[in-house]
Specification:
Blueprint lengths: L2 H15 L4 H25 L9 H21 L5 H4 L15 H26 L3 H12 L1
Helix pairs in contact: 1-2, 2-3, 3-5
């Protein structure tokens, strides 16, 4: 629940100083939805004295629905459709598949749900995912 302040600061500073594009809007939407899911999970654990919080099926359903929405939205917009339909691999300049909408949507869903759960699991180890976030941010900065 301490992440609410971080998310409010992130959203406010982004809306004040970033150029608002489709990708920025989708990123902020995903941050808000996943923060809401995490808040509800914490609420279920603490207030309702539920031992496990929100069931895994509910978490995966919300994450999957969000990922499907983002993938479909990107695919339906002409300026971002290639992000879904063209399958790229690291260190190779050209797409390995073009026009692969179904594979692109599946990969998009797997990446969003996978990264969301990776951060959730990391956060559960010590209560703060900021250590891992700082390490990744510093490496990508240099």
């Amino acid at each position: 629940m301490g992440g609410i302040l971080i998310v409010l600061t992130l959203n406010l500073s982004t809306l004040l100083w970033a150029k608002v594009t489709t990708l920025v809007q989708l990123t902020l939407l995903s941050v808000v939805v996943l923060t809401g899911l995490g808040f509800y999970d914490d609420y279920a654990k603490i207030i309702q004295q539920s031992s496990g919080g929100v069931r895994s099926v509910v978490k995966l359903s919300v994450q999957g629905a969000l990922a499907l929405f983002i993938g479909t939205y990107l695919w339906r917009r002409p300026d971002t459709a290639r992000l879904i339909t063209d399958i790229m691999v690291p260190f190779y300049k050209y797409p390995v598949l073009t026009g692969a909408t179904v594979i692109g949507l599946i990969l998009t869903m797997l990446v969003i749900v996978g990264f969301s759960n990776a951060v959730n699991l990391t956060d559960g180890l010590d209560g703060l995912a900021i250590g891992c976030t700082l390490i990744v941010a510093m490496v990508s900065w240099f």
